[in-house]
Amino acid sequence: MAANSTAKTPANENTASAGEPAPVDQDALGISELAKGVLARDFRPRIASVRRLAEAVLAKEAKPKKKKKKKPTKKAAAAKSGGKKRKLAKIPGQKGKK
């Protein structure tokens, strides 16, 4: 039984064992890599990492979106080429619309 007591135990059992991957430095990861790792459950995010992701999302929403230019419709293209629409001259002696 003395042989069992002399067996070496790991110095720190909280570190990654042989079957687990090494801990990830979450501060060194980019925002997209961090988000992918969290969604894939490769690692558990720390509070600071969650805060970074939240700030990135809010910063992206705060930026104004560029408006896309719409293609002119046929009416708009016809009006543009014809210039302003002008009223016809009044003919003397005729009554106005009722």
Which structural traits does this protein have?
single chain; 98 residues; rod-shaped
Mean pLDDT: 74
**How far is the first residue's CA from the last residue's CA?**
116 Å
Q: In this structure, how is the largest beta sheet organized?
A: none
| Percent helix range | 25-40%
Q: How large is the radius of gyration?
A: 36 Å
Beta content: under 5%
Sequence stretches where pLDDT stays below 50 over 5 or more residues: none
Can you write the helix and strand succession as a string? HHHH
Secondary structure class reads: mainly alpha
- DSSP helical segment count: 4
Shape summary: rod-shaped
Number of strands: 0
Overview of the molecule:
This protein is an all-alpha fold and 98 residues long. The protein has a domain at 22-63. The chain is built from four helices and no strands. It has helices spanning 2-5, 31-39, 47-62, 74-82. The mean pLDDT is 74.
